[in-house]
Specification:
The complex is a heterodimer. By secondary structure, chain A is mainly beta. Chain A has helices spanning 117-122, 324-327, 365-368; strands at 2-7, 26-32, 42-43, 49-50, 56-57, 64-73, 76-82, 90-95, 104-112, 133-134, 139-142, 148-151, 155-156, 169-179, 201-203, 208-211, 219-223, 228-234, 240-241, 249-256, 264-273, 279-283, 286-290, 295-299, 332-340, 343-349, 357-358, 362-363, 374-384, 398-409. Chain A has two domains: 2-156, no CATH class; 185-409, Sandwich (Jelly Rolls). Chain B folds into two domains: 8-236, Jelly Rolls (Sandwich), CATH 2.60.120; 256-335, no CATH class. Classes of the chains: A mainly beta, B mainly beta.
Chain lengths: 413, 363
């Protein structure tokens, strides 16, 4: 599975205009080659954008490109591509049953074309968009006196494609393996200490940018500023089925919120299913900041305004409201405990050496009506703007810095 | 024409026309390292013509044959003895050039074309270009030092070979060439940039095309500029053409996560990963741009793959598992900086299955 660049921007060479659908004579493709099934072969039609001044961006024309392979079973694999690490992969499945059961993966890793596949195979299978062409455009001139003149450029034969030129550098950023969904619980954990690496995560693709390079050691979630309901979740999405992830277990997140002069909120977004299946409600345990009241409140669901009690399908309560000395801490540490399918608890602390400030153990049957079978959606989330049920006033470019998320069996005290 | 013949009339006929027939497979039939310091007339019949040819010290007591011609093919050298075609008859030798424009003998050399022809000929008499067709019908390797150029008969030589030959500037980085004669006709032309550890098939006409003459003679002729030949060995080889480099297996870790690598070790260690084929990896560095591997190709016309030392068995790790690969595109290639034409690249994910199981036998 390849990201292919053909031609040149035109700034430095004639390029391959015959394949380019834009004035610059270069083309980017996501292309599947080989003989492992047909569902991933050929042009994936992942477009790039003509920037106009200097070439293309987007998709396969991004500086960084990412590939994903999943071994799902003895006759099923998936391959995928993403051109931006913040967002999901474009995945395609390959049924390999025609070859018999998979006995192993003989080779896996990066590949850099060095042979004549590009000119001799790929380019002979691409449809030329242009024949002989003018090299630039109608060359026009507006003189100071307002007169307009133009001159046609010469027509040129399309250049023949060349094999890769060994003068160029190639780069491999990372080769990472990990269990795939359903992950072992601990495998959801991440301390975000590998600068630039986001392999296990993805964001809502609207209004949100994730990175691990702007604040090293942290996942930075930047909100563009549009009214949104967004967040980050394990790549490909996930749900926590309690028949697989058997309680007790707990999830800890350490994060530094945006400035307290703005309204912000961060919480775990869980849809809940009962034993009979079907999603029956939401539980969104987290923290919400109200700048005018100078208060940080524990929430089971985001509140439109301070003091409004938004009911969730599970409503955890504290004996005493957690104090500002804890809830205003930066970073803040939040713990969600699934004690068993019928009981949950939440805790906070302001420093890693402090004791947890726990809620009451909550019987989920009280509001939900029975035990929990699955937590779906499973994304650390936030909302901004009234359309998403949050107070107005969230500015552009607010950032959450997540130091770590830690999933573990057992319960802290 | 200056025609120096080290004629065998001074030597017994049995030696002149002795055939270097094989006695035991693998034992050299003929060897020449030039360390006698001269062109031995018992082994070679040399014509200097309008060129230059002598055995030259190359340091450390070692010697090599230096040849320079003027593209008129009057300078050449033939083996006196012949070799019987069969049993994978082959010759292996080292080859390199330099960029001198005037020979030590004061002969002006044409600067823009240099090279060598050979190595197998159907006769050791007459102009060298007339005897080569009978052998395996291949002319090879006219190179312009520093650039590419080919004058040959038979399959086109690859740009990768021409680049590798142009890059060979001394014995320490000499190109190794091996040309095997088909037992009936044609030949297999191979080359190596790593001292013969691995070989690249340049072309193969064995049994398909090319001459079928036997016996055969060795012969070389320079085109222009300087060409050095050394360590010539004729033997009869096994069929060992171009095996894929065999990665050294390393035990796979207990956790699949431990196969991950972000290439940030300043030592340059990229294990458990390796890049193959190693002869096409000119450079692989984790210090050029820390945090990733920077790779340069050697221009040998081969894909470079990053692989683990061994396959991952299906039952090796809990399924499902996944692999993610991050790559960065070259600024210069995206811009095509440095190219007057185009910068075509293809990078991505390689996944290969193992060999298919043999079909079930039915009783």
């Amino acid at each position: 599975m390849l990201v292919v660049h053909l031609g040149a921007t035109g700034e430095a060479g004639a390029g391959l205009p015959q394949f380019a659908d834009m004035p610059h004579p270069d083309t980017y493709l996501v292309w599947g080659r080989g003989d492992l099934g047909y569902s991933a072969m050929g042009d994936w039609n992942v477009p790039s954008i003509w920037v106009g001044d200097g070439g293309r961006r987007g998709g396969p024309a991004n500086d960084q490109v990412f590939f994903r392979f999943r071994l799902l079973g003895p006759s099923l694999v998936q391959v995928g591509f993403r051109g931006d690490q913040s967002y999901a992969f474009h995945m395609r499945a390959i049924d390999t049953s025609q070859y018999g059961p998979i006995t192993g993966v003989w080779e896996i890793g990066p590949i850099i074309s060095g042979d004549r596949w590009i000119p001799d195979v790929l380019c002979r299978n691409l449809k030329p968009i242009k024949g002989w062409h003018d090299v630039g455009d109608l060359k026009s001139t507006i003189e100071p006196n307002g007169n307009y003149s133009y001159q046609w450029q010469k027509f040129y034969k399309n250049p023949d494609p060349e094999p890769p030129n060994p003068m160029y550098e190639y780069y491999v950023d990372y080769c990472a393996f990990f269990p795939s969904a359903p992950l072992p619980l601990e495998a959801y954990s991440d301390d975000f200490n590998i600068r630039g690496y986001l392999g296990k995560w993805q964001a809502q693709p609207q209004g949100t940018i994730l990175d691990t390079y702007s604040h090293p050691g942290h996942l930075t979630m930047t909100l563009i500023g549009s009214g949104c309901g967004t967040g980050f979740s394990p790549v490909g999405g996930s749900e926590l089925d309690l028949s697989y992830y058997k309680p007790p277990f707990e999830i800890e997140i350490a994060f530094t919120a945006p400035d307290d002069t703005i309204p912000w909120n961060l919480w775990m977004n869980w849809q809940i299913a009962g034993p009979g299946g079907g999603w029956k409600g939401f539980w969104q345990p987290g923290v919400q900041n109200f700048p005018e009241e100078k208060r940080h409140l524990f929430i089971n669901r985001v509140q439109q305004a301070f003091g409004q009690r938004a009911r969730a399908s599970i409503n955890v309560e504290f004996e005493e409201v957690p104090p500002e000395s804890i809830m205003g801490a930066k970073p803040l540490y939040m713990l969600i405990q699934i004690i068993d399918p019928g009981r949950v608890r939440v805790g906070f602390r302001g420093a890693p050496t402090d004791p947890w400030y726990f809620s009451k153990v909550t019987d989920v049957a009280k509001d939900f009506g029975g035990p929990i079978a699955k937590f779906g959606q499973h994304a650390f989330s936030t909302v901004t703007g009234r359309r998403w049920g949050a107070p107005a006033g969230a500015p552009m470019y607010q950032q959450f810095l997540v130091d770590y998320v830690d999933y573990r069996y057992g319960l802290s005290e | 024409m200056k025609h120096m013949r080290y004629l065998g009339h001074l030597l017994p006929c049995w030696l002149l026309f002795a055939s270097f027939a094989a006695i035991a497979c693998g034992a050299p039939l003929f060897e020449e390292d030039w360390n006698s310091g001269r062109i031995d007339p018992a082994k070679w019949d040399a014509s200097v013509g309008n060129g230059v040819m002598h055995v030259e010290p190359i340091g450390g007591g070692d010697h090599a044959l230096m040849m320079a011609g003027r593209l008129d093919w009057t300078a050449y050298i033939y083996s006196v003895g012949s070799f019987s075609r069969g049993d994978h008859l082959r010759v292996t030798f080292k080859l390199w050039g330099d960029e001198r424009r005037v020979s030590p003998d004061g002969v002006a050399l044409f600067p823009d074309s240099a090279g060598i022809t050979g190595p197998w000929h159907g006769s050791n008499k007459g102009p060298i270009y007339s005897t080569i067709d009978e052998a395996i019908d291949m002319w090879w390797a006219i190179l312009r030092l520093g650039e590419n150029g080919v004058y040959q008969k038979g399959p086109l030589l690859s740009q990768a070979f021409m680049r590798a030959l142009a890059a060979a500037r001394s014995k320490s980085n000499a190109l190794m060439v091996r040309v095997e004669c088909g037992d009936e006709r044609g030949g297999l032309f191979q080359w190596s940039t790593n001292g013969g550890r691995t070989w690249i098939d340049e072309f193969n006409t064995i049994g398909v095309a090319g001459g079928s003459a036997s016996p055969l003679f060795l012969g070389f002729a320079p085109g222009q500029s300087h060409v050095y030949i050394d360590d010539i060995v004729v033997d009869q080889g096994a069929d060992d053409r171009s095996p894929e480099p065999t990665p050294k297996p390393k035990p796979l870790p207990a956790r699949i996560e431990d196969l991950s690598e972000h290439f940030s070790k300043p030592s340059g260690d990229i294990s458990p990963w390796m890049l193959v084929p190693d002869q096409n990896v000119r450079e692989a560095s984790t210090t050029e741009h820390p945090g990733m591997i920077t790779i340069y190709q050697n221009g040998l016309g081969q894909d470079i793959k990053g692989i683990l030392g061994q396959p991952i068995r299906f039952d090796q790790y809990r399924v499902p598992w996944e692999f993610q690969l991050g790559m960065v595109q070259s600024f210069d290639a995206m811009l095509a900086a440095g190219s007057k034409t185009q910068a075509n690249t293809a990078i991505g994910l390689n996944v290969a299955r193992g060999p298919r199981p043999a079909p079930a036998r039915h009783a």
